[in-house]
Amino acid sequence: MSELGIDMNDRSLGAERRGGQVTPVIGLALALIATSAALALLGQEQARPLILALLALLSVVGVFSLFALSIGLMRFGEGARDDLTPNVLDAIDTGALVTDKAGRILLANDAYLSLTGANGHDVPSVERVFSGTGQSAEQVHRLAQAAATGEPHHEDIALDRDGVGRLFFRVDVAPLQAKGKKRGNSLWQIRDVTHDRRRQERTFVELQSAIDDLDHAPVGFVSIDREGGVRSMNATLAQWLGRDLSETLGGDVSANALVAGGVTHLLKAPDANAESRTTTQMLDVDLIRADGRVMPVRLLHKVTVSTAGEVLPSRTVVMDRGRGSGDTEPLRAAEVRFARFFNNTPLGIATLDKSGTIGRTNATFMRILPEISSANSRTTIPDLVSDTSEEELDAVIARCLEGHADISPVDVHPTEDTDRTIRLFLSPVQDRDDEAAIVYALDVTEQKALEQQIVQGSKLQAVGQLAAGIAHDFNNILTGIIGFSDILVSQHQPTDPSYSSIVQIKQNAHRAASLVRQLMAFSRQQTLRPKTLYLNDMLGDLAVLLRRLLEAGIEIRAERGRDLWAVKADLTQLEQVIINLAVNARDAMPDGGRLTISTANVAEQEARSLDNALLPPADYVRIQVADTGTGIPEEIREKIFDPFFSTKDVGKGTGLGLSTVYGIIKQTGGYVFVDSETGQGTTFSIYLPRHIEAEITTPATDATAPAQPAKDLTGDGTVLLVEDEFSIRTFATQALKARGYTVLAAETGAEALELIDAHDGEVDVVVSDVVMPEMDGPTLLKELRKRTPDIKILFMSGYAEDAFKKNLDPDATFDFLPKPFNLPELAEAVKRLMDGEGG
């Protein structure tokens, strides 16, 4: 052991010296005992100077010992420690050096001397050993700093030696901290790691060579993780795909972007309970190049599950199945075509063995039933569907596996998403032992939704046609009642006892007419008077009315969209829609709440993003009426637009409110949808088509536009009245004669033509019903225009004008008077035509 102040060439001697340090102590003790005995034998006078001399000597020795201890020349216990520490350090084959806190060398073992080439008298410090390049100086400085602060640290230092080359050393420093002390000595260890570094370099070169071999192999390679991300890809596959290899190394490339039809079918893991935790599949797919073209390939796809149940990234070999040469070319081409058909078809395809277990599947099948990707390798079709579908499906599959071909398709619902509907078609296979049946799967969720909408629409249309027919006949009756009531009112004074009864009859007739208008609105047969509207202006006026109409505890908010587009609608009917929805919202908030009416533009792109099959992509203006009420339960949500359906108590609603809303919006060309959650509130969304005004408009008479009432309703001229309803014909004849007109009354269109011929066409105005036996109103108009091209005609009907206008020429002119009407309205319409203000 090399130690400062000890001859390093005589290590055994140093050991003997350390081992014999007890003998002087014993000798010194014996000498003191002998001196004490000799002094005791002498007389007191003789012994006093000797005792004083002995005490002086011991004092000098004591002072010297204290001084030696204070400056470190003397230590207690060094002999025992030196016996153990050098032996331990010498047993270590790593170079070891002990320094104190000042950096002085205390101990150095043989391995350190051998590594540094030092002799026994000059032990170099670590700084001296590795002094050289600037880089090693920085590393040694960091080691010294760590030793000074009492922190462990290590560095790998390169050292160039003549004749040997570059050597590598691992240098560690760690504190030898005594208990209770802040910082003590430091232990330095030096290991020659040249052999390990050279072995690592060789391994790195071999690894680089292996990677280069894999990159330039004649087949492609790709690794796909459980989430479908590409973990790695070789250069051959990247070249086939026309991609830069560096783009695929970051883990951001999705395998779905590389494989036509997606990679869901590649991610199926082996059954965790199976004997083998590895599955290997051979799959024929089409890869998508960077330029969008496809490349047919064959995959050898291997997936492994770890002992912890984790699905490890795949190891997939990719072989080009493109056009080649040789005798196998026809077979190869057939395989390519089949693989393309199988994997890219919009139908999901899977095979079943004799036990009903799913075998091979294409990508579409995995997308339609993604639950199969998380199932085990013994999965059957019933395992993937809900319990409501399982019983019927079991019977169908059993029949197919028995070889029956007349298998009807069955609709099922997946376990993870019961709102979706999957239609399965099964076909038996007789010529293969590993395949007993083929299952074709088609997602018909949207089709089912459309079917329900069509059924609902057909039901509403049938009820609407019935309602329109009833309303038409009822309008005829009400027209007679109202008309005769007007005649009676004009013939009686308010003081007559019967006057109030006549007024009551008239008022009830008008109430009945209002109910009929709701029926007509539901059946979309009412007469609309559309004009260009800006809904923000309408909401401003309507908000005042709604505040008076709704309860005090309901807060009304109006949120107007900016730069709102124009729409073409009937203002009165649209206001009725908003009022109906607001009243329903009020009834749904008995304890108060908030009613929000908002408007916004919905561009065509946004309409597409709504993912609503019933809303064609176009520009719309949206009105939303949202409340914070009780909401609509899901079981009755589909019935709310049905006629006469109501959730209100008896006597509190007719059931025509929402059906009227639906009819008005549909007749306007718009769409209405409802979104509700029980206890959270309801939102009605109305989409009206955007209306763009023509830059140049040609003035024309609008038969549906309201006109200012004439001040004087009397006149002269000949009116031909054509009406098959006796009461209306009688009332209208009396009313027009009372206004000064000559009236020719006809029950049918044929009779009207005879009358006009008999009077040589001397008829100023024709007032005709639309729906009549033998000849309807539009046919009568055509015949009249043949005789008298400029004759003026006024149609009156309980149906909407659009219901019969399509049967006329586009340039046909006429006026229209909707039933029921009263005496002033009839007289006013005839007066306008007589004055040349109508068609």
Shape: elongated
Helix count, DSSP H or I runs of 4 or more residues: 24
Secondary-structure class: alpha+beta
The number of E-state strands comes to: 27
Alpha-carbon distance between the termini?
130 Å
Strand order of the largest sheet: 2-1-5-4-3
Q: Which parts are unreliable, with pLDDT below 50 for 5 consecutive residues or more?
A: 1-20, 77-82, 649-655, 695-710
Give the overall pLDDT as a whole number. 76
How is the main sheet built?
A: 5 strands, antiparallel
Helix amount: 40-55%
Measured by DSSP, the beta-strand proportion falls in: 15-25%
Radius of gyration, whole Å: 53 Å
Explain how this protein is built.
- It is a single chain.
- By secondary structure, the chain is an alpha+beta fold.
- The strands form 6 sheets. A 5-stranded antiparallel sheet has the order 2-1-5-4-3, sandwiched between helices. A 5-stranded antiparallel sheet has the order 7-6-10-9-8. It has a 5-stranded antiparallel sheet with strand order 12-11-15-14-13.
- Residues 1-20, 77-82, 649-655 and 695-710 have low confidence and may be disordered.
Task: Summarize this structure as a short list of keywords or feature phrases.
839 residues, alpha+beta, five-stranded antiparallel sheet, 24 helices, disordered N terminus
Can you describe this structure in just a few lines?
This protein has 839 residues and is of the alpha+beta class. The protein contains 24 helices and 27 strands.
What secondary-structure arrangement, pairings included, does this model have?
Elements: H1 11-19, H2 22-41, H3 44-71, H4 78-90, E1 95-99, E2 105-108, H5 110-116, H6 126-129, H7 134-149, E3 153-161, E4 165-176, E5 185-192, H8 194-215, E6 220-224, E7 230-233, H9 235-241, E8 278-288, E9 294-304, E10 315-320, H10 329-344, E11 348-352, E12 358-361, H11 363-368, H12 387-401, E13 410-412, E14 422-428, E15 437-443, H13 445-491, H14 499-522, E16 531-533, H15 535-549, E17 554-559, E18 567-569, H16 571-587, E19 593-602, H17 604-609, E20 620-627, H18 634-637, H19 657-668, E21 671-677, E22 681-689, E23 718-722, H20 726-738, E24 742-746, H21 749-758, E25 765-769, H22 777-787, E26 792-797, H23 801-805, E27 815-818, H24 823-834
Parallel strand pairs: 17-19, 23-24, 23-25, 25-26, 26-27
Antiparallel strand pairs: 1-2, 1-5, 3-4, 4-5, 6-7, 6-10, 8-9, 9-10, 11-12, 11-15, 13-14, 14-15, 16-18, 19-20, 20-22, 21-22
Helix pairs in contact: 13-14, 13-20, 14-19, 15-16, 16-19, 21-22
